[in-house]
Every structure is written in structure tokens, then in C-alpha cells.
Amino acid sequence: MNIILNIQRYNPDVDDAPYFQEFSVEVGPNQRLLDALMLVKRFQDGSLGFRKSCAHGVCGSDAMRINGKDGLACKTLVKEVAQKEGDTVTLEPLRYLPVQRDLIVDQAEFFKKYRSVKPFLINDEPVAEKERIQSQDERMQFDDTTNCILCASCYSACPVLDENADFIGPAAIAQAYRFNADTRDRGFEARLAVLDRPDGVWPCQNHFKCTQSCPRSILITKRINQTKRLIEKHKEKQAET
Ligand code: SF4
Ligand code: FES
């Protein structure tokens, strides 16, 4: 069927402001939105800018706003966003990150906030045997968060960032939780300095937009609330001693 891709274009080197351009594309309902974008790039306008790599929902590089919702073009089927001949699909770059070109954003700020929570295992204790043992139940406490592909869909979907650009955002907190909840990790206090401040975990107001946008079905809002509880418990413990 024929659909219209209404794509936000912007080349900061030559354009004064972003504008929309329509492309008519012939695609099947079970093809992916990324296929439609590739058809435009190959046969209509080679200057169209968008990122993609794996094309299978693994690398996280083709996250964008699709009809006002954040997600991966390679994980979105045409029939999910266009039901009939002539339907229009509007594509925009992720929000809150500077546009480099068309649908490509500069993710430096997103990764800076992600790195600020020290998203790696911290443990200086000597290893008892060959490895640090963990039960399956212990692993399941944070298992979903290990699936993050750092696509930044949740970051763009978060309404809090609209008012508070310094908020570290959902992905960073979910990754802080991933290690704070890991029984092998000892880095909670090191992460606390970033999480327990006005731009840390507290601005989250449970809008659930991050959870709804996540292509990896990570329970982001739940993990943010669990992080808040971990901090509160830690403070209560400190007050008792
Ligand atoms: S938590 Fe989900 S939406 Fe957010 S960056 Fe990770 S994979 Fe993407
Ligand atoms: S191209 Fe890799 S996640 Fe879509």
C-alpha cells in the first residue's frame, strides 16, 4: 500500500528552522518502518539523515518519534502506524537532544547522565572462589534492566525533562537500579551522590511514559520507585545509627 512519510527535516548548516517534508512510499503492512525509510533514502532523497545498524531491535540506534510516540523504526511495523492506503506517518527526532541532521540527534547529554550513575559493578572485596555467586532469584530482581539498549526512547518520552532539563532521566536511573539491586555490587553509596539530589531520582512523577515507550519492556517506572525506596531505607538506617 501507499503511505505518506511526513518527516521532520533539519540541517543546521543551511536551514534556519526545522520543517516537514512528505514522501510517498509503497510498502507492505508487515514491512517495518525502517524499510520505508530505507526506500526513501535509496530511491527518493539520499540526503535524508537517520541512524540504523542492526535493524533487529538490538543496537538502539534508530529510536525516533513515530506519530508522537517514541520507539524504534526497526521494531515498528507499517500496519501498527498506518492502517489504510494514503495514511500519513509523522517522524520526528527524539526530544531534548540537539538535532544533528533530520532524525539524527546528538546523544552526548544522554550518555553523560547515564555514565554519571556509575553503571558498572563496583566491588573491591576479594573474590571467594572463581566468581561471585548469585542465585536465580537474586538475578530476577533486576533481570529486565539488563536488556537496556540505550536507545533513549524513554528519555524522549519523559514529560519531566520538558520542565527540568537537568533531570538525569529514566534510563540512567534504571541502570543505577540494575547495579544497586545486584547482590554482588557494593557501589550504592557511590551512586547515591547522583541519585539523591534534586535532579536525581526525585523529579520523577510516575507518568509511566518511559515504561510505555521502552522497546525492551523494562519496568522503568517500577525500578525508579524501587530506587527511591532504597534511598529512603538507607537514610532511615543512617538516622538510627
Ligand atoms: S530503558 Fe528502554 S527505552 Fe530507555 S534507553 Fe533502555 S531500552 Fe531504551
Ligand atoms: S537498527 Fe538497531 S535497534 Fe533498530
Structure commentary:
There is one protein chain. This protein has ten helices and seven strands. The protein is α+β, with helices and mostly antiparallel strands and about 240 residues long. The protein has two domains: about 1-105, Ubiquitin-like (UB roll) (Roll), CATH 3.10.20; about 110-240, Alpha-helical ferredoxin (Fumarate Reductase Iron-sulfur Protein, Chain B, domain 2), CATH 1.10.1060. Strand 3 (about 65) and strand 4 (about 70) form a beta hairpin. Helix 3 (about 110-115) packs parallel to helix 7 (about 170-180) and helix 7 crosses helix 10. The longest helix is centred in the last third of the chain and has 21 residues, at about 220-240. The mean pLDDT is about 95. Bound molecules: iron/sulfur cluster and FE2/S2 (inorganic) cluster. FE2/S2 (inorganic) cluster binds near residues 52, 55 and 58.
Query: In order across it, which strands form the biggest sheet?
Result: 2-1-5-3-4
CATH class of the largest domain: Mainly Alpha
- Major pleated sheet: 5 strands, mixed
Q: Helical residue percent? A: 25-40%
Radius of gyration: 20 Å
Multimeric status of the protein:
single chain
